[in-house]
Fold this protein.
Amino acid sequence: MKVTGAQAIVKSLEAEGVEVVFGYPGGVVLPLFDALYQAPSINTVLTRHEQGATHAADAYARVTGKVGVVIVTSGPGAANTVTGIANAYMDSVPLVVITGQVATHVLGTDAFQETDITGITIPITKHNYLVDNAEDIPGIMAEAFHIAGTGRPGPVLIDLPVDISRGELVFKYPERVNLPGYKPTVKGHAKQIKEAATLISHARKPLLYVGGGVLSSNAAKELKELAELMQLPVVTTLMGKGAFPEDHHLFVGMPGMHGGKFTNYAITETDLLFGIGVRFDDRVTGKLATFATKAKIVHADIDPAEIGKNRSVDLPIVGDAKAVLAGVIEELRKMNAQPRTDSWMRVIDDWRTRFPFHYHTSETAIMPQHVVERVRELTKGRPTVYCTEVGQNQMWACQYLKIREPRTWASSGGLGTMGFGLPAAIGAQLGRPDHLVVNIAGDGSIQMNSQELATASINKLPVKVVILNNGYLGMVRQWQELFYEHRYSSSTLPQDCPDFVKLAEAYGAFGIRVTKLDELDDALVAAFAHDGPAVVDVRVEREENVYPMVAPGGSIDEMLGGIPGGPVSEMLDEELLEEVWE
Amino acid sequence: MQHTLSVLVENKPGVLTRVASLFARRGFNIDSLAVGETEDPTLSRMTIVVAADENAIEQITKQLHKLINVIKIQDLDPKDMIDRELVLYKVNAAPDRRHEVIEIANVFRAKIVDVGKNSLTIEATGTGDKLAAMEDLLRAYGIKELARTGRIALARGSRDA
Ligand SMILES: Cc1ncc(C[n+]2csc(CCOP(=O)(O)OP(=O)(O)O)c2C)c(N)n1
Ligand SMILES: [Mg+2]
């Protein structure tokens, strides 16, 4: 029996077990939306902007581990997904984005709402397709899901001309795909894995440097096992948050520009930096020439192009984090290796107590860090997914929340996309209906996709938005204060425009404003208890800065602000260190 | 250093754009690029000549490998490859000087493929060095127009298993 191209897309989605699709219709994609209308097993969520759909699918993928799916129309619809695709690409999130396209016979003629979206997205997709034959649909769909979800995950775009979606084919979904040019190396090289185990067993000051790759490969269990087996301290990047419980005694924070001083000191002093599923991003490494110079570097990643890209390594391991970690554990067990990090942990603990995150409290003003701490405390014990916008709000969320479980954190890392948080919260809520979903937001970022409050409201998604309303593009203002002599060029936002409470109410959400410190807890409790979406507009101290901070291009152990402490060479407890060196 | 990359790709639309845009994005200038179908019509071979240091070439090769349509990449060893280029030169040659130009062509085993009133068109194949030497000599007469295919290359047969 023959089906249409549009039906074949839907049947492929069903074959892939897709339950939720985020999208927005338009002329040339109507055949596909019509087919979706008749697909009871797929929940098609209409967002209020294609960027919102893409971020929602992105966060849905982050919290579920499945491939997120987006369906939009050609031209403006497709173009509106570009930021979302770039975001997913930078953070290695699996997406399949299906864009309608003008009919094949008018392709290339500047037809109404024609955009060369495959051309536009070449540099921001793992792969993309322009379908020119309806019969290719099942094969392309199977390939797209396979490519998006395996190896180093990423977005795949399928451009579907309207005549192809009306064309006919006999539907048969392929059981496996055959891509001669795509064969990710999953299992690490045995010899290198053994070598890594040996290095770990000999190291006196080892450090595991963990990124999003550990989450993508669902390797949190193996990571914890390795860390505990050898008592190895662990730092997780912004993308790696949740891969290791942040309340664990071996957790040593987030490295980099706004990471902990104790974390950056540990990286500077370690003698074995074992990077797993990380990419030595500039926000982590600061000045490369002074990054972890005392360490042997082991780097395990499924993407060979990441190894040695920014930092030369002593031991490269190409492989999936889960397989590599399991292999290293096995080798360590075989050699009956014993933990020997006792003194090293004491050095780190000493730094941790001397250089914790710190801010000046106030009797009257509401400090943004305090708000994040209260969110942390009031959500303790309740399964929660935390999302963030971008800017100071995001950095304070990184510093003061405690992410305990894998896939309960969604923050725009590589691209730093303002406007990510709210649609992300929507996607996360759909992926984890039983979780509380909180978006730590800034007053600037939230306005980039606030229209998605309608999506939350209409779909009864009880996401909570906590706006750290400082009346500024705070992170921009901070840089202007520090590096542009207080010239606040285009970074001031009136705190009361818009009125976020009214905005929430206009969308049928619960809105509440907090202007006094003693109102904060009640408002958060009320918002978290409300059985629909809620917005808490917290008027925080306006000119608070995120500290500590590595100056752009500076060495990570030389941080501005926070508790005074110079470069790591001056920050070592001599006695403790002697033990480590002995 | 100059590298000759021999890249086996799927013979599909858009593949050239993907490869070229990868080079452009990383700021590499491609010295020459030649593409054509191989013995297997579903595959094309691209011969890409690019100047880059070792780190850069390693990164670009790894990035190329990430393209789904790229199947195999060889960074050909200059000592162990056969490389050729084809060039057409349209050279000024008034009737009284024609024989000089023809002589040069003969020395380089090039062919005269077109004769105009005041010009000759020469077809020459060879390695970059040979063609450069010939071009040097022809320049004395004035090269009116020139078209070249770009380098194509294969690893020497002795390297086959
Ligand atoms: C789409 C986008 N545009 C611009 C920027 C640059 N930028 C980074 S942080 C920031 C300010 C964010 O302001 P707000 O959301 O109020 O957060 P705050 O820093 O005040 O907490 C800006 C403009 C960005 N990251 N994303
Ligand atoms: Mg702000």
In short: Chain B touches chain A through 20 residues (CB under 8 Å).
